[in-house]
């Protein structure tokens, strides 16, 4: 069986959240045809963690009613995965943000200064572009002529 087909989704209940945060134990709904070895390989491959052991629980189909119609709820296979103390699986985006904040060192002041200088230059360019859009065409043409005439005169001075 393909590694990506083994795990269907994580079980998110109060009990699984308590075990996940305190004991480093995760619960997943897995494919009915899988076994413990395949689940262990899949979790280690997908999440890049070290798995200590895997327990599997098979839930049979249950009778269910919807109004007058009788049927069954689907059978499910759950895997309880125990991870090494150093390993951690990030299931939510919030956890990833917290993990990055705690692991990233603060940037140097020199880097901040160079970034702010680049930002200032970009802001000046934006202001110039906005002001040129606001000017009428004639004013922009006059300004262009002045800027073009200055380098020519400077070039003549340099030749002498």
Automatic annotation (TrEMBL):
Gene3D superfamilies named in the record: 3.30.70.330
Purpose: One of the early assembly proteins it binds 23S rRNA. One of the proteins that surrounds the polypeptide exit tunnel on the outside of the ribosome. Forms the main docking site for trigger factor binding to the ribosome.
Family to which this protein belongs: Belongs to the universal ribosomal protein uL23 family.
Protein name per the record: Large ribosomal subunit protein uL23
Region (Disordered): 125-160
Coiled coil region boundaries: none
GO BP field: translation
Oligomeric form and interacting partners: Part of the 50S ribosomal subunit. Contacts protein L29, and trigger factor when it is bound to the ribosome.
Keywords: Ribonucleoprotein, Ribosomal protein, RNA-binding, rRNA-binding
Example of a GO MF term: rRNA binding
InterPro entries according to UniProt: Nucleotide-bd_a/b_plait_sf, Ribosomal_uL23-like, Ribosomal_uL23/eL15/eS24_sf
Gene that encodes it: rplW
Domain of life from the UniProt record: Bacteria
Compositional bias annotation for Basic and acidic residues: 125-137, 147-160
GO annotation, cellular component aspect: ribonucleoprotein complex; ribosome
Pfam families in alphabetical order: Ribosomal_L23
The keyword ATP-binding appears for this protein: no
């Amino acid at each position: 069986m393909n590694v990506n087909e083994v795990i269907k989704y994580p079980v998110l209940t109060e009990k699984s959240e308590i075990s996940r945060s305190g004991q480093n134990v995760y619960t997943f709904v897995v494919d009915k045809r899988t076994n413990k070895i395949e689940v262990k390989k899949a979790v280690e491959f997908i999440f890049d963690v070290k798995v200590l052991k895997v327990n599997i629980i098979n839930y049979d189909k249950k009778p269910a009613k919807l109004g007058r119609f009788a049927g069954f709820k689907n059978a499910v296979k759950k895997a309880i995965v125990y991870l090494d103390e150093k390993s951690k699986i990030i299931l939510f985006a919030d956890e990833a943000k917290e993990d990055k904040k705690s692991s990233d060192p603060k940037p140097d002041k020199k880097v901040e200064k160079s970034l702010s200088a680049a930002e200032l230059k970009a802001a000046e360019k934006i202001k110039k572009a906005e002001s040129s859009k606001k000017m009428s065409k004639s004013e922009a043409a006059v300004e262009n002529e002045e800027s073009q005439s200055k380098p020519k005169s400077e070039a003549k001075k340099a030749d002498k």
